[in-house]
Amino acid sequence: MAPLLLTLLLLLCLASPPLAAAAAAACGTNTSLVGYEADLWMSQHQLRGRVEVLDGCSFRVAALDLLAGSASARWWRAEGPDLDSLARGAPAAGDPLNRTFLSESLVFRLLPGVSWPLVPVLAAFDPLTSSLFGFVRLSNDSSADSEAPTMFDSCAQLSPRLRVRWTLHGTSDSIDIGLEAAVGSEYYIAFGWAAPGAPEPSMIGADVAVTGFTEDGLPFADDYYVTKYSECTVRADGAVEGVCPDTIYEQGNDTAAGAVNNTRLVYGHRRDGVSFVRFSRPLVSPDKKYDVPVNATANMTVIWAIGLLRPPDSLQPYYLPLGHGAPAGTAFGFATLNVSASGGCVGPLDAEDKEDQDRITAERNTPLVVTAGPSLHYPNPPNPDKVLYINKKEAPLLKVERGVPVTFSVEAGHDAPLYITSDAVGGNATSRNATEVVFAGGARAEGVPAAPAELVWLPDRNTPDVVYYQSLYDPKMGWKIQVVDGGLSDMYNNSVLLDDQQVTFFWTLSGDSINIAARGERKSGYLAVGFGSAMVNSYAYVGWIDGNGTGHVASYFIDGEDGAGVHETSENLTHTRCRSENGAIVFELTRPLSPSCSGRVECRNIVDPTTPLRVIWAMGSQWSSGQLTVSNMHSITSNRPVRVLLLAGTAEAEEELRPVLAVHGFMMFVAWGLLVPGGIMAARYLKHLKSGDLWFQAHTYLQSSAMAVMFLGLLFAIAELRGFSFKSTHAKIGTAAFVLACLQPINAYLRPHLLAENGEILPMKNRVIWEYLHIITGRSAVVVGAIALFTGLQHLGDRYGSKNIKGLTCGLILWVVGVTLVVVYLEFMAARRRRGGGADDLSGKWVLGNTDEDDSVDLLQSTKMESDSIEPMEMQLEPLKG
Ligand SMILES: *[C@@H]1O[C@H](CO)[C@@H](O)[C@H](O)[C@H]1NC(C)=O
Ligand SMILES: *[C@@H]1O[C@H](CO)[C@@H](O)[C@H](O)[C@H]1NC(C)=O
Ligand SMILES: *[C@@H]1O[C@H](CO)[C@@H](O)[C@H](O)[C@H]1NC(C)=O
Ligand SMILES: *[C@@H]1O[C@H](CO)[C@@H](O)[C@H](O)[C@H]1NC(C)=O
Ligand SMILES: *[C@@H]1O[C@H](CO)[C@@H](O)[C@H](O)[C@H]1NC(C)=O
Ligand SMILES: *[C@@H]1O[C@H](CO)[C@@H](O)[C@H](O)[C@H]1NC(C)=O
Ligand SMILES: *[C@@H]1O[C@H](CO)[C@@H](O)[C@H](O)[C@H]1NC(C)=O
Ligand SMILES: *[C@@H]1O[C@H](CO)[C@@H](O)[C@H](O)[C@H]1NC(C)=O
Ligand SMILES: *[C@@H]1O[C@H](CO)[C@@H](O)[C@H](O)[C@H]1NC(C)=O
Ligand SMILES: *[C@@H]1O[C@H](CO)[C@@H](O)[C@H](O)[C@H]1NC(C)=O
Questions:
Q1: Which residue numbers in the chain have pLDDT < 50?
Q2: Closest C-alpha to ligand 7, atom 6
Q3: Hey, what's the signal peptide range on this chain (predicted)?
């Protein structure tokens, strides 16, 4: 036995040196990178840490923070951090990144056969979902940026969901501050130094930076100064108080405004439901008025706050913080900070709601419009430059219900056919993943806006809870679909999307009441839906969630643009409910079709299912019952009302007034309001003038231009509306006026002559009848034409809900009254002339072609018809006939 053992030992002793050598060789001999250090660049999962190359085959990651990835997440090697390079890459180390790392310092070993030259980029990557968590570039090239904006020297935890990180730049006397908070994108984060020397910490006099994200998802950081516990207000005398940007205090003084704005945004992003904004500020600012000097070595009081952000509106061009209603400790607080002391935070911030993406819920009968657009906030980087948009939202999380067919109108281009797949990455996944299941779509579900392709998909009981919509050719253009059981679609018979695809309106008619629900398709504090064609003079229903998380629904009547014009009404609403679905407001109510009361304004709020209901909407950050303030201002509204046909279950957008129709209206006004009356008046009142046949020329010229303008106007309307329809009153009356107008030149041509060819005087009877006919048709034409103008305006109001129809109608009425007054005056003058008899009549008589025997005289005093002055006039006319 012993010899055997000995032999074994000997063998082992002999074998060990070559084994060790083999191990060293596997480790990689290229050690040119040893000692290289770089910060990890964060992309997702709150990855932070500093990578250091230890030797040819291992590396240490110091202070590694990471939210758990899936079991396939690894350290990965690739040519670059982009989508293609990572897809071509391979694992670099064996250890899975499948757990949460809490500021740990760990050593990882490269896989056998992998050496540093094969790892230009070391990434934390999950190949299953193609998710990049973060990366470092490994190269001794000093130009490579080894500082990531998410990495700082120190960190302090201010509240469970808020941290401040900072790096002191002693040489430049400035400090870089990073604010990190697990809050929604609609929140601001404020941090700054309290006024020094105060006996107890106070917000008054504090110099803070307010950071957050605009509605477009862009970060901002602004220098603020606090003079009062209130939102920033500019008083009537121009004084500014509240929590205001430094620049507002110096309004109107451009040099000063430039100098007090000392906070510089460096970087910002939102990932995993965490907002992060980095900015830089001087320790001791040149602005002594609104900035607190920071003593780098002293303990100083800092203040912080988290709250809702009010988007800019017509009154204020800034994103302003709203009051933070919640108690101290979660919404604001004080702390003591010495920026020279180094502190640390443990682990990554873990937000409850990590899905930050826009959400869209598919409804029965409402197609989802799929387009392609640039990627700005794709939820799962790395991402291609072009991604899919649904209803104008970038790669939203789509929610569908089992049993409710989903219709896509695919217009993302010929290179992006839509398909619904089980694979998270998509893009011809079958070529690499044989288990991919395709639920709908394929190469033929492609289209462009001019020719969209329709794709209908019915999720059924066997559809998994999460599937993906993707492009068939390119990976990662789409995102997740959440498949759920039951929802608003099941409870309401009808639904339509309101203007801009931002609000879905649901209703069910039951007997003499109507059940209504509305859902905002974006995060907001309240959702208002109004019945009417504009905000003013509409009946509105507002659903909102208060500071305690309780939902409310109330009814209002709005008669003004500002808060004072919004009056709460006591409509009989029943079954009211309001809740927030991931920040988007949903409210429901039931109301009688016609209120059973009288007298009050809400009693006129009748819903008639047989006529289209005009619906508008608005959303904003904060609402409260009782007194409304500027903070209730909406931040986004519908651009135009949508006409909801309650019985048919459909909706149509209220059309914009087409410019060509405005031209039609204008031309008709010129013809019927100016030229035709002008022509008639010329015939009636110019005959007594001395200048021969002026009246006749004026009459024919005016009336023939009127005919031409009228004809053009008619053609414009027909061309714009693509055809002619007699349905509307305006079309009927307009046609009548046009026909009457057309009769005039015809009967003018057929006018019986007073003198025959041989100079014989013909019988007067025909001529008298003709004159009556001509005059009666002409004047009826003017009356009918004027009516047509009014019906046209009314039609415009009905069809387009245009706001200035009232003004136009008033203008037209004034015009008609004016013309009538002028006619009365001229009539009066003419009568006086006739009564005065003498001079005028006589002078008229001896001018050739001039006569008082004009049409009106013929009509009014037909006995005068037999007057002697007809012949000269006729002689004058004769040559014109041609
Ligand atoms: C991570 O993966 C390893 C190896 O596959 C496994 O042993 C471990 O249980 C996983 N940890 C978690 C938290 O899933
Ligand atoms: C070591 O790898 C680097 C790239 O990482 C390369 O530039 C260098 O030439 C290699 N050195 C040797 C000795 O192979
Ligand atoms: C504008 O600001 C400058 C610098 O703060 C100051 O000297 C000047 O008096 C201000 N002008 C006015 C009109 O307030
Ligand atoms: C402060 O200056 C930056 C540019 O340096 C500008 O983008 C920002 O809008 C300014 N802030 C205010 C409140 O004027
Ligand atoms: C700052 O506060 C810490 C503890 O709160 C204390 O130990 C330290 O002496 C203070 N430093 C100064 C400069 O006051
Ligand atoms: C900063 O604070 C330290 C300690 O509190 C103090 O000694 C020093 O004078 C202060 N510096 C300035 C410029 O105020
Ligand atoms: C999918 O990939 C395979 C091979 O990678 C290729 O032959 C096939 O044409 C691709 N299909 C589509 C629809 O691009
Ligand atoms: C392949 O597709 C299935 C779904 O059908 C998915 O669960 C799996 O993770 C995919 N595998 C890879 C390697 O992408
Ligand atoms: C929240 O609830 C408390 C107690 O129920 C109440 O006093 C307070 O007014 C409520 N706040 C709001 C904003 O409704
Ligand atoms: C609500 O109902 C009550 C009783 O049914 C009635 O007296 C009241 O006028 C109604 N109010 C409205 C606004 O319809």
A1: 1-3, 5-6, 8-21, 838-882
A2: 431
A3: 1-22
List of E strands, 646-720:
650-653
Quick one: pLDDT at residue 135?
94
Report the predicted TM-score, pTM, of the whole model to 2 decimal places: 0.68
Which residues, other chains included, contact 567 with Cβ-Cβ below 8 Å and sequence gap of 6+?
556, 557, 558, 559, 601
In 10 A of CB 496, how many CB atoms?
21
Report the alpha-carbon distance of residue 726 to residue 742 in Å, rounded: 18
Helix (H), strand (E) at residue 822: helix 805-836
SS3 of 261, please? Answer: coil
589 contacts 516 by C-beta, under 8 angstroms: yes
**790 Cα distance to chain centroid:** 36
Domain ranges of the chain: 37-137, 154-337, 359-486, 492-653, 660-881
Backbone angles phi, psi at 370, to 5 degrees: -105, 120
Nearest-atom number in ligand 10 for the CA of 572 is 1
The Cα–Cα gap between 275 and 271 comes to: 7
* Pocket lined around ligand 4, Cβ cut-off 6 Å: 222, 245, 247, 261
DSSP state at residue 158: E
CATH topology of domain 359-486: Immunoglobulin-like (2.60.40)
The class (CATH top level) of 660-881 is: mainly alpha
Query: Pairing state of beta strands 90-91 and 101-109?
Result: unpaired
Peptide bond just before 595 cis, omega within 30 deg? no
Instruction: Report the candidate in 628, 645, 637, 785 with the shortest Cα–Cα distance to residue 703.
Output: 785
Q: Which residues contact 508 (CB under 8 A, 6 or more apart)?
A: 491, 492, 493, 494, 514, 515
Tell me the CA–centroid distance for residue 593 and ligand 10, in Å. 12
Atom of ligand 9 nearest to the CA of 548: 1
If you measure from the C-alpha of residue 643 to the centroid of ligand 4, how many angstroms do you get, rounded to a whole number?
42
What is the C-alpha separation between 874 and 245, in angstroms, rounded? Answer: 84
Joined together, the tokens standing for residue 703 give: 């009336």
Domain 492-653 falls in which CATH fold? Answer: Immunoglobulin-like (2.60.40)
- 709 φψ region: left (φ > 0), alpha (ψ -120 to 50), beta (else): alpha
Task: Name the region of 21 (left: φ>0; alpha: ψ -120 to 50; beta: rest).
Answer: alpha
320-321 vs 332-337, strand pairing mode: unpaired
Q: Which residues are CB-neighbours of 846 under 8 A, at least 6 positions away?
A: none
37: tokens are 């250090």
> In this structure, what are the phi and psi dihedrals at residue 490, rounded to the nearest 5 degrees?
-75, -30
Q: Do domains 154-337 and 359-486 have the same CATH topology?
A: yes
Alpha-carbon separation of residue 227 from 82, 233, 240 (angstroms): 48, 11, 9
- In the chain, what are the helix, strand and coil shares in percent, each to the nearest 5? 25, 30, 40
Ligand 7 pocket, mutate which of 414, 421, 428 (most atoms under 8 A from CB): 428
Q: Do 366 and 504 form a contact (C-beta atoms < 8 A)?
A: yes
Residues facing 374 on adjacent strands: 386
Integer angstrom CA distances of residue 499 from 503, 662, 689: 7, 24, 61
The answer to whether the beta carbons of residues 751 and 766 sit under 8 Å apart is no
Q: What is the pLDDT of residue 874?
A: 39
How far is residue 554's CA from residue 867's CA, in Å, rounded to a whole number? 79
Closest ligand 4 atom number to CA of residue 261: 1
Q: CATH for 154-337?
A: 2.60.40.1210
- Phi/psi at 135 (nearest 5 deg)? -160, 165
Distance 570 CA to ligand 9 centre (A): 22
CB count within 10 Å of CB 134 equals 26
- The full DSSP string for 229-252 is SSB-EE-TTS-EESEEEHHHHTTT
Helices 805-836 and 838-845, packing angle to 10 deg? 90
Q: How far is the centre of ligand 4, averaged over its atoms, from the C-alpha of 181 (Å)?
A: 23
CA atoms of 152 and 45, how far apart (whole Å): 17
- SS3 call for 677: helix
